[in-house]
Amino acid sequence: MEHKDIDNMETEVDKKTESKNFIEVIIDKDLEEGAVKKVVTRFPPEPNGYLHIGHAKSILLNYGLAKKYNGQFNLRFDDTNPMKEKMEYVDSIIEDVKWIGGDFEDRIFFASDYFDHMYEAAVKLIKKGKAFVCDLSAEEIREYRGTLTEPGKNSPYRDRSIEENVRLFEEMKEGKYPDGSKVLRAKIDMASPNINMRDPVIYRIAKIPHHNTGDKWCIYPMYDFAHPIEDAIEGITHSICTLEFEDHRPLYDWVVRELEYENPPKQIEFAKLYLTNVITGKRYIKKLVDEGIVDGWDDPRLVTISALRRRGFTPESIQMFMDLCGVSKSNSSVDYAMLEYCIREDLKLKCKRIMAVLDPIKLVITNYPEGQVEYMEAPNNQENEAMGVRKVPFSKVLYIEREDFMIDPPKKYFRLYPGNEVRLMNAYFVKCVDYVTDENGTVTEVHCTYDPETRSGSGFNARKVKGTIHWVAADTAVKAEVRLYENIVDEEKGVYNEDGSLNLNPNSITVLKECYLEPSVADAQVPASFQFLRQGFFCLDSKDSKPDHMVFNRIVSLKSSYKPAK
Ligand code: ATP
Ligand code: MG
Q1: 44: CA distance to ligand 2 center in Å?
Q2: Bridge-partner residues for 266, per DSSP?
Q3: DSSP string, 455-471
Q4: What is the pLDDT of residue 496?
Q5: CATH number for the domain harbouring residue 402
């Protein structure tokens, strides 16, 4: 598989602006030739799980084309398999499609609303001698189908009369036969080199209630029969799907041709989006959810759309990511780092930058007056002046990051160590004069003196320091929980174990229970994201954060890959 990485991104962007993707080329031609008047696309999810980043690609592609060509975009539930489908999934999909920016307005449809039409379509095929009721078992149908190198054999039921087929199909609908005892098959060609054309099953019996149609139906259409009909009914012009359906296209075309739809839709395939170090594929995600390995479909380590939202990704960042990925005919996998790049880019100028200490130790300023509080002015975003400034309280006892102090530092360590002076961001220079350890030798307090002359903004420049560290005043700090995430699987170590199970990263989540944040975050409400200076981007967790116990998710670290010790 081709691998796209972050280094190629600039050129990808340049290429994109000057060239059209292959689907746009097809659409341009159709419009030019008058074969299509108005472009209509759709996103056709099956409501059997939550949507993931791969679906986001399909949504944005289909929606983007409709928008670009002043056409229409439909959301259509491909709900023809009641066994795995649920209203919970329907609801989540609607929410996620809207959130990601796929604006379907009121154009929301259900394949199950077309069941009457599909039944009539099947009867039409029977009456044309193009479909028959077959009594072979699933196992026998497989045997008769042949292989890639050998043709299949005709079913012994293939030559039933039209009248008999009409009657049997109607009886199937009326519930006269048990599940699996009969199917309706298209009559095409058992010797076709394309196995999909060897008299495919188009209707099956399943006495299962449906989330939309209830008990009305006990026969359900198969995907390859239903999908082209759904597209044709809605006047879809370009039915965009992923590469695995390429071999199904002849059947798609057969269905719309035999049913004599005017202006039949055209199927176009593109490559699925694969991302490194994450799990896409509803089946696998569902397994993690069902086994309780993750905290539901929206666990921030997943790449479902709801998980990305909870993790603090924005629709804009995902749109940017899809633009960078482009649309391709060959499968490739994209570096997760590219998605991280997009969210950093999007949040860079939008988020307030605050001070937060994730792994605290106390810093005591021995010559600072007890009980005094000063309010230090801090820019809300150094790169975006329009975001203004805020006041941050400063006092004698602060928290700093444990990593920012060392008793015995290596060369080129410019942060605090005995005798060294650093700048406290937005405040004063402090010089380390002492430290306190517990019985294990762990540092519990760092003692410093400050120089009142060096107050930030005073223009002091008599001497310089090499290190600047962040801090939070202990008295007024907001205590919070912060969750750090790593990828849930590691491509380099192998995504699967020998037994086929997933090789999960045991460090995919780290929970820091005692973090101290500037008081300016106290009023934040979901959705709220911040840059924690020198650390990364963080958002309030929509599920677990409470006003008296704030919980933050790390969206992404800063590029510097600075990470507090665990
Ligand atoms: P999964 O493989 O994750 O189970 P699916 O293809 O079975 O997904 P559907 O609900 O059938 O899920 O998909 C809805 C639409 O999303 C289809 O048109 C499908 O081709 C598209 N799609 C699914 N996965 C991807 C992906 N990784 N990249 C791009 N499009 C995708
Ligand atoms: Mg599917």
Answers
A1: 10
A2: 238
A3: -TTS---SS--S-EE--
A4: 86
A5: 2.40.240.10
